[in-house]
Amino acid sequence: MHDFALEGYHPGLSLDCVIFGFHENELKVLLLKMKNWDKWALPGGFVPKNMGVDEAAAEALFERTGLKDIFLRQFYLFGNPERNNADHVEKLVKRGVIQENLKSWFSQRFVSMGYYSLVEFSKVTPVPDTISEFCEWKPLSDLPPMIIDHEEILQRAYQTLKKELDDEPVWLNLLPEKFTMTELQTLYETILGKQLDRRNFRRKILSWEILVETGERRTGGRHKAPILYQFDLEKYDRALREGLKQGW
Amino acid sequence: MHDFALEGYHPGLSLDCVIFGFHENELKVLLLKMKNWDKWALPGGFVPKNMGVDEAAAEALFERTGLKDIFLRQFYLFGNPERNNADHVEKLVKRGVIQENLKSWFSQRFVSMGYYSLVEFSKVTPVPDTISEFCEWKPLSDLPPMIIDHEEILQRAYQTLKKELDDEPVWLNLLPEKFTMTELQTLYETILGKQLDRRNFRRKILSWEILVETGERRTGGRHKAPILYQFDLEKYDRALREGLKQGW
DNA sequence: AGATCTTTGCGTCATTATGACACAATAAGA
DNA sequence: TCTTATTGTGTCATAATGACGCAAAGATCT
Q1: SS3 state at A47
Q2: Domain of B195?
Q3: Helix, coil or strand: residue B48
Q4: Residues B196, B93: one domain?
Q5: Which of B106, B141, B166 delimits the end of a domain?
Q6: Would you say the C-beta of B207 is within 7 Å of strand D?
Q7: Does nucleic acid strand D have an atom less than 7 angstroms from the CB of B246?
Q8: Is the CB of B79 less than 8 angstroms away from the CB of A52?
Q9: Domain assignment present for A172
């Protein structure tokens, strides 16, 4: 294995991606289980010298999920000088997570750019990276112990997601192409952590005029078959630009 | 002069601060005029190795304005690999803006964290830094030519400010302690770039219940003396946490 | 002192958005 | 065909918003 520094990564800069998915009425996050260690980490990486930071984040996302052209957004630069302490690197080496020759690279002070991403759960094929044993979805409601400040990064991403939800219909990235109104409502309820009135929810969503009926219905349940909706991309793009509710 | 790198700055990372002020019914930005060069730059700096990134930004802000505990917020990490080109550094050296021995430091690829700040215009004492000739306010409506991508950074900060304005009463940071409703309205109109109805504006602002009357009025105009308001800090803090309009 | 000018404070009214809730329609299984 | 669960579509009262009118009050001018 080569030395990371020699391979030409931007010094002192790392990336952490909080990848959200929606499955079984739960919001889940894609996490990596460290080798020989009962700690989990956010997918992330470093920035090749010839690559933009956003580009490198998209690349990292692609490697873990197999997906391209995915919703991915900066939310905070974690720049506390104590966030990557020497003790942590020592543990990484001792447990064989990283090789001895990479110790100097990992011992740098890192400033980490936090990204959050919204993906369609069913399309993801989780792939572990070189320092992890496996990669899997974990519900936000039951998170495993995580390395250094990754739990804080995750929580901050979640707060940002909640806030963005008020302004932009970002949730489209979490759903499959066709979905029912109830599925969308459950997603909202899950993210916001509260119950919403079915009839008022429907009225509000439809008032944005970003959904169109597919003409199909979902059959199989022992009840009235619900309409399947999909996005009207043109109108959606306009809503994204202008915001759903423009004050003043 | 010492070598920047040896002085212990975090490598490849810089800061740019877009400092907004409100004066003479205009939104203005604090800019630095480069030495021997008709180009302007945003105040910024580098991050000392023992200092947090946010902390370093606050320090840079303090040095240019003399102000502490000021509204300062990250808005975007500029991470394009081409943003600091070799040609630009060559110019800096040739024009004597930076010394020859600093050339290697400035020739690094920099990733720059963008911050925007809101300050009370009258409290600022602009101070130039080592690479600039002077430091002054420039109206957003008539910006001078700027180095590398600083114009883009500035515009992006302005877009962010406009957006935040819908969710949070961040504008308080731009006004003096006591102000009239009309002054506040003019500020809104300036930032948003559109006229608002005086009576509806008043109703909406007061409905947030973050302002209290001081009991004083501003005299001197050839008309009815307007009430001077100030913030109710407690209520304002709550509004900041919850957002002014919580959807759902 | 009174007229004039300008901006302020505080309303009204019509329209729209929101919250709470009711009821008929329908897919699947008994 | 009957039952059950869930869906589609309403209504109604209340709150928020947009458009606009008018009297009150400082300062200046006559």
Answers
A1: strand
A2: 168-242
A3: strand
A4: no
A5: B166
A6: yes
A7: no
A8: yes
A9: no
What residues have CB less than 8 Å from A5, skipping those under 6 apart? Answer: A11, A104, A105
Chain B residues whose beta carbon lies within 8 Å of the beta carbon of residue A54: 79
Tokens of residue B52, six digits: 């947090």
* Cα A198 from Cα B153, distance rounded (Å): 43
For A47-103, how does the pLDDT look when each residue is reduced to its tens digit (9 = 90+)?
999 999 999 999 999 999 999 999 999 999 999 999 988 899 999 999 999 999 999
A81 → closest Cβ in B12, B51, B74 = B51
Domain count, chain A: 2
Verify if strand D has an atom below 7 Å from the CB of B223: yes
Write the CATH number for B230: 1.10.10.10
Asked whether residue A13, judged by its CB, lies under 7 Å from any atom of the DNA or RNA strand D, the reply is: no
Q: How far is the CA of B231 from the C1' of C17 (A)?
A: 29
β-strands B9-23, B111-118 pairing: parallel
Beta-carbon separation of B166 and A80 below 8 A: no
A144 and A190 together in one domain:
no
How many residues are recorded in chain A?
Answer: 248
Q: What does the pLDDT look like over A129-187, one tens digit per residue?
A: 999 999 999 999 999 999 999 999 999 999 999 999 888 889 999 999 999 999 999 99
Nearest DNA or RNA nucleotide to B225 (CA to C1'): D26
Interatomic CA distance for residues A103 and A113, integer angstroms: 21
Same structural domain for residues A162 and A183? no
Residue B46 CA to residue B108 CA, distance in Å, equals: 12
Residue ending a domain, choose from A134, A166, A198: A166
Any CB–CB contact under 8 A between A51 and chain B? Answer: yes
In a domain, B159, yes or no: yes
Q: Does B159 lie in the same domain as B104?
A: yes
Phi, psi of B126 (to 5 degrees): -65, 130
Based on the domain organization, do A119 and A195 belong to the same domain?
no
CATH number for B18: 3.90.79.10
Task: For residue A53, give the nearest of B52, B111, B245 by CB distance.
Answer: B111
Residue count of chain B, please give it.
248
Q: Are residues B138 and B179 in the same domain?
A: no
Q: Report which of B145, B153, B165, B128 is spatially closest to residue B22, judged by C-alpha positions.
A: B165
Nearest CB partner across the interface for B196, out of A111, A163, A248: A248
